[in-house]
Amino acid sequence: MLRLFGILLTVVAAIATAIVTWPQFFRLEQTFPFAQIVSLRGVVVIAFAAVFIVGLLLALARPLRAFAGALAVIALVGALANGGILLARGVGTGTLPPVTDSSIRVMTWNTAGSATDAQLIAQTAVAMRADVVALPETTIETGEAVAIAMREMGSPMWAHHENYGDRPGYPDWAANSTTLLISPELGDYAVVASTSDGASNTSAVPSVVAMPVDGNGPTIVAVHAVAPRQDRMSDWRSDLEWVANQCASDDVIMAGDFNATVDNMARLGVDGGDLGRCEDAAARTGSGGVGTWSTSWPPLVGTPIDHIMATDRWKATGSVVLGSLDDSGSDHRPLVVQYDVQNSGTPSAG
Question: In the CATH scheme, what is the homologous superfamily, with its name and number, of domain 103-341?
Fold first, then answer.
């Protein structure tokens, strides 16, 4: 009986390892708690490594040798599989190639409201030569201060925003606002009118959809999806679907706090995209496994929930997660991506 019980536990452990490693296969990547677990692959690797060590120690006891050995093997496979996925997506902080006449740079940084100084945001954007800056949890007042500071540094920007106002239970909450800065070199942009009912915008915290006034240039979306807390899973799933729908046309760039990893987006890609028709730039340029949240955790333990994505009109040539700003006040790390135009018809900036 004890032997059968050990076999049963081994089978359960193997199934659990498969689920937390690749929940997409079981269609559980957007189901609590697997959606949260798969977002923390670095933590999963550490957990499997710990189980592996425990299994080896238990195997020293003869009565437990078979069961403990099997458990250690399963844990080793789980650690290697999750570690391999992280390595494939990239665990370097990344680099950016030199700016060219056909390239643009996009930066996203969830600033946690007033926790991050506007001057620091501007200095970072200018230093990275950003043409587009998505700032979730940033009011238009802060966004305008950033734009003014960037103008004084020689990099003028137009500031756009979406604000859900003082919502019940969340007065003066910075997450009620999202700001988007766009260089005048990309042309004039206007924000598409939206509502907070989840039909024409994300449900609980706002995103910004900006379209070129003359129709020449990419649609630019500053994304902020609700966090996948247990009581908000339905809103979170609908937010991801809404964001995926924004990337249905040929020329789209999206950046922001998606509150999801590419694992959570597994069934929302179209035509080879990761989310709608958009491809995740960091995962394709060597930094997709680096955690952008939380700054209180090491980068390889955190979760990459901040993304910059674009349709195949744009080719990502480099990305960088800025870990030098972990003491800035925000709990997110900035992400910067450089794109080059792959197809004609889109204005460029340098």
Answer: Endonuclease/exonuclease/phosphatase (3.60.10.10)
